[in-house]
Known about the structure:
The protein is α+β, with helices and mostly antiparallel strands. The chain has helices spanning 16-23, 29-32, 44-56, 94-104, 111-131, 163-181, 246-253, 300-307, 324-328, 338-353, 367-381, 388-414, 469-489, 503-520, 528-543, 549-569, 581-605; strands at residues 36-40, 59-63, 81-82, 156-157, 184-187, 190-198, 201-209, 215-219, 222-225, 258-259, 264-270, 293-297, 321-322, 362-365, 423-432, 435-436, 449-451, 633-638, 647-652. Strand 6 and strand 7 form a beta hairpin. The mean pLDDT is 96.
Amino acid sequence: MSILDSKIPDGPLADKWTKHKNDIKLVSPANKRLIDVIVVGTGLAGGSAAATLAELGYNVKAFCYQDSPRRAHSIAAQGGINAAKNYQGDGDSTYRLFYDTVKGGDYRSREANVYRLAEVSTNIIDQCVAQGVPFAREYGGLLDNRSFGGVQVSRTFYAKGQTGQQLLLGAYAAMNRQIARGKITMYNRHEMLDVVIVDGKARGIIARNLVTGEIERHAAHAVVLASGGYGNVFYLSTNAMGSNVTAAWKAHKRGAFFANPCYTQIHPTCIPVSGDHQSKLTLMSESLRNDGRIWVPKKKEDAEAIRAGKLKPTEIAEDDRDYYLERRYPAFGNLVPRDVASRAAKERCDAGFGVNKTGEAVFLDFSAAIERYGKEQAHIKGLDSNDSKVVTKLGKQIVESKYGNLFQMYEKIVGVNPYETPMMIYPAVHYTMGGLWVDYNLMTTVQGLYSIGEANFSDHGANRLGASALMQGLADGYFVLPYTIGDYLSNDIRTGEIPTDTKEFEEAEKQVKERIEALINNKGTKSVDYFHKRLGKIMWDKCGMARNAEGLKEAIKEIAELREAFYKDVLIPGTADEFNEELAKAGRVADFLELGELFAKDALEREESAGGHFREEYQTEQGEALRREEYQFVSAWEYKGKPSDAVLHKEDLQYENIEVKVRSYK
């Protein structure tokens, strides 16, 4: 076991990033033209990185498996993006954002990275406004803010419930400018299937053209992975169906350490599972918790009557409703962090108070907000604030202006009007805090191989606060990687073009083709989805919202057996040299079947509860997560041939600017 070098700069926390930028090596504009960079993934992290690197003068090759960068999963982000601008004058600051993020991550993130994230957050908003991102504005024209979970200030900038889409369009526009200039070569419908290592350095990738099936070699002086998270290891998640771990996992198998795979975020406000037919779950933005109140009936008989369809939620008297988050966490109420809100919902449903047919749902109710806003508007307009019809009409208009597309989406999916009847929500797999281990420069343990955004582990610890995913993705792509990658590439200005006719590229391509041929020629009897669903059930039941040693040991064994069965009995129709989505899906599920075992192994090794990792053996008397001081480290796993043989390396986490204490939101 070795100690990892995170390359954190010396000096006071607030000066580290500035000092580091002043100290690192640069590449002159003339020399940037001589250097190629591959960016895999074109979401917010990859899109912003590709655009910025190209603007600086590098030659960028950008890859996405979608038909356009506009299809990246970042488009699905709804509620907002954090920045410590303190526009509300409510006490926010760079330090406060830093503190909230470290505390929200249950003191399992790296101080220096998080402070840098908070520091550059303000630049992101200016960048995006300049691009034309239509953030919501107040009456006077200033940018508006709202609150998200785990904080007591309003620092979240938003564009209705479409923030991810609008930010992605900004990054896409920036990319398009560079594509038109010839500085970005765009490879749509291409999937990275391996990293090529030459003399210990990442020098290219092997990609498959998903339309023709052709296997291609692509070389560069550095490779940047911005391929998102691995939530689809659970099969049912809020991720797009195409989201996968393949790029990161192939890098892991080439020497990049995989950090904290067991840290997975369960989002509390998702539309509940409706049946076995579903292939994904739909997220309802955390922003809804600003105005929606979460509750279940106080009486079990009322919950049973609602489940049986004999009672409507609107017929439950106010005194018979249990606003359990407000009861248990009075200081933060409905805006507790996601892991806390998720476990609280699970506890109420497990106790028999769930409100849908399966008993796995709670209510998210906007009636109080509609009344509050309605009375305020009636007062402003000089109307009768005691007229319920007037108040309701005006209140609905305000709620619609803030959350209209989310309400519309809910009604379209569920068939129930959420203005009239409370929404039903339940926790679901969302974001993954684990990922490839990176140092302060965002470089993995492989020289020249970088990982940004959700694909790395760096900023969120054991739990991510809402509206921080977009913040990290754009911070990494616009304001961090473009500086730090130059320090590495400054040694390559005389290297010349990287050739692809070398033995390393030849061997990597050969291995990719052999894996594809083995899958396509297997001729089993079961579909890819059959195995993916079985894996997802194991993961949810034994590695989901709660874990224990016995279940994790069973999961490790069952996943290994399922992986063996997959290679014996998977059936993939069609051929390799054509558009074949089943083949593409099979490769992704094969990687999930390896990651899942490492996930469970990491969860078993970490004998504590922290954030999204909740071990039932380690909880307080009140059912909260119980951290243990001896686990104040990053778990970084080295690949040794198979997941069961992975070797653990530790990066100890030092807290010099924050007092580590029991996390409380009461």
